[in-house]
Amino acid sequence: MHAYKYFVFLITAMIISSCTPQPEKDSKVSNESTVVTPQEDLASLEVEQFEFSNGLRLLVQEDRTSPVVSVQAWVPAGSITEGKYLGSGISHAVEHMLFKGTDRRGVSQIAEEVQSVGGYINAYTTFDRTVYYIESPSSGWKTALDVLADAIFHSKLPENEFIKEQEVIRREFAMGLDSPDRALSRILFSTAFVEHPYKQPVIGHMDLFNKLTRDDLYNYYQAHYVPNNVTFIIVGDVNAQEIKEALEEETSTLERGFVPDVFIPKEPRQLGRREHLKPFSTDVTRMIMAYPIPAITHPDLYPLDVLALIAGRGRSSRLYQELVEKKKLLRDVGASSYTPAHSGLWAVSATLLPKADTTPLNMSLKEIELEVTSILEEFKHTHVTENELQKAKRQVITSHAAELKTVSGKASSLGLSWFVARDIYFDENYLKGIKNVTAEDIQRAAKTYFTPNSLTLVSLYPREESTQDADEDKLVKEPSRKNIKKLNNGMPVVMIRDAKAPLVTIRATALGGLLAETQENNGIGQLMTRLLTKGTASRSASDLALEVEQLGGSIAAEFGNNSFSLAIEVLDSDLSQAIDILTDVLLNPTFPVDEIDKERDKLLTDIKLEIDNPVSLARNKLRASLFKPHPYGLSTLGNPESLAKLDQQTLKSYYRKLLAEDNLVFSLGGSFDEDLAIAELNKKLSSFQPSEPVSYKGRYKPDNPEYSKKHILPTDKVQAIVTIGFPSLSLDSPDRPALEIIDQALSGQASRLFTRIREEQSLAYFVGTGLLAGLDPGYFMYYAGTQKDKAEKVHTEIFREIKDINQSGFSPEQIERAKVQLLGKRILQDQAASTRSYKAALFYLYGLGADFEEKINQKIRDTTTEQVNEAFQKYFSQDNYISVIVQPDREL
């Protein structure tokens, strides 16, 4: 989609969610191929528009491809509309409070009703809007609409809830302080904008937030949450007229309101370079170079977007090839074009490699700046190639198609088109605009916007670094047909066809993963997986990246606890070529020595990056304590000592061992011709010589852990993390449905755990549980994010809740709600055929059968309250746990 959605790095860091918390050669694609318009190949469904007498707007798109619905309410109340409260984060604070009760529903009743129909509810706030949404099976649309409309227009924002929620938001401030990406994003916007309120963080400033009262929130809410300032957007398996009638009845007594006329100053032209370098608690330096660009309605939107794709999207992009692959100056680099309703930014974001010498930081940053500037200058003086142009256009088409795979994606796309451009067909017109971009347009845009005096450079660097320029501061059955066929060599292929979008994902999945590793070779699976796409006997890494991206596709390898996989997603017309690429990568990887060194360095960087996340620290320590020496206790990234031992021959031998015929399954999901797929796979795999299968299940058993032990990990962060782990079960355990239900019952805004710790006592920003069930028994984790002086209290309260459940059990109502919610979540997660085919292939591979997911769903439906409570008592005694607390050494 358009750049407003592509600016992932920055916009992810700025959006605040209220609830619990990726040398030019001849192309193999004909230069005569064209980029199609959506009318030609991506025909969209009709959008019905309604405007009620009180000004309330409704957009409905009927989509019968999956039995799900997305109900969204878009309110133009964000950080730039706050008027006299500018910088306080009042829009975000209202978002937190909107689900705290209405005249008809109590504090927890909103979440409970949504969960009762198998849905979930959430919201987010950005610069210019707050969006509330409910995703659910389509059978629950009426409840979802009723609940959301009630919350939007009839929330009470009670004083006692605001007092508690203030503490929750303060914990969110702490999360932002601990996150280097959010911190860097905040610095960028505060530096690049001097007049426009984009310079203010969405969450606000702590000192201004602390001055807000409940009356301030209620007055702001009453002013902005009026019918003529709200748009409902609904996409899914629904009837538009029924939706319209239901919403009209729900809001018939509401009257128009006076919406505040907020003055938003125009950002003046930047006349000089701006720079802000800041020390941070991190081991890895990050930087962003940004240039101001016009808003989304400007015609330069199109060449600027294409330019960002050519410059910095994917491994074959110019920036990546030059600075990561060839010169090895960076861990990662990308370019993005951010064009909101007001002034935007065109940016290059980079992650530096850890310094291995004594080069001063300011010299390292200057070197990167000069390299990036040199590459951007090339766009001013020479035209991009036709291959680059066609590749970028195809990437846009593929991204648009990928967005159509879920109703939430469709609703968000429709919402952005209407909200930002006031044109429900903006996406379609955008694709036409992209199609018409020429090399001359791109050259003109580069000359216009990439000027030295308009550059803003910001960076976060490790605190120990120094630089003289730095600052010191009822559910339906599966909608698609599953088919399992065998290739000539006996290898199984799981196929699920679904033509809702013209995409197909082909995947090879094999046993392995963390379960196949030892302490001595820890990290080999991760390194091996990353190297799969780094070249074959007939394709170099750059050739491979270029070929895939010219198709507008993507290829990626995934590494898990029990398996690894390789997948390619392309338009359905490119199926044959995709299978050729996939099988070549799978059967003929070369693991080049220079690529091994580069990926090893990246892994070492990623290990340091993981240290930046207190939740990861706690989880990794918890797993290591519970599972040692079982592989589930190892790091998924490896460790410096084991990684240093890995060479080309070791990797090749390890990979050949994993490619056993009985340990490998292919899958296809999406739009494709079954016969063609089987024919192509048979042709490409005719000479495959598999190894003998190896069983990894049950090879190791954990030592007897020191139960009831508490580990304290001091950090220089400001956020405390509490984790408690209990040993649990394997995927095929008869108790699994019960533990899945327990996990759901203790998660979300209506859970007992959430109510006790966050709602009643305001002890934590987030709290919940997680279940790992693998081929071998896994673990069940309780977790919470809190502040330094409340960590012990949170730890105590979690155990009090465990004790209460052990004594009194869950009620039938709680279990029924959890079951409906869990089953609804599974439907929502499995909208894409690529997801369903992947799951089916995994379970087939694990010996559980391709229909295992459906069997688990039925077992969840059949599990009784008594069975759940018995399982709870079985797994959660008071003496079979290990705790890990990440304890900060500084205050918020």
Explain how this protein is built.
There is one protein chain. The protein is of the alpha+beta class. Helices cover 43% and strands 18% of the residues. It has 33 helices and 23 strands. The strands form 4 sheets. The protein has a 7-stranded mixed sheet, with helices on both faces. A 6-stranded mixed sheet has the order 13-14-18-15-17-16, with helices on both faces. α21 (575-587) runs parallel beside α26 (674-684). The relative contact order is 0.12. The model is unreliable at 1-43 and 466-480 (pLDDT under 50).
Taking the sheet with the most strands, its summary is: 7 strands, mixed
The shape is globular
Secondary-structure-derived class = alpha+beta
User: How far do the termini sit from each other?
Assistant: 38 Å
Number of DSSP-assigned strands: 23
- Catalogue the unreliable spans: 1-43, 466-480
Q: Tell me the helix content.
A: 40-55%
Q: What does the radius of gyration come to?
A: 27 Å
| Portion in beta strands | 15-25%
Q: What is the residue-mean pLDDT, rounded to a whole number?
A: 88
Number of contiguous helices: 33
Largest sheet: spatial strand order: 1-5-6-4-7-3-2
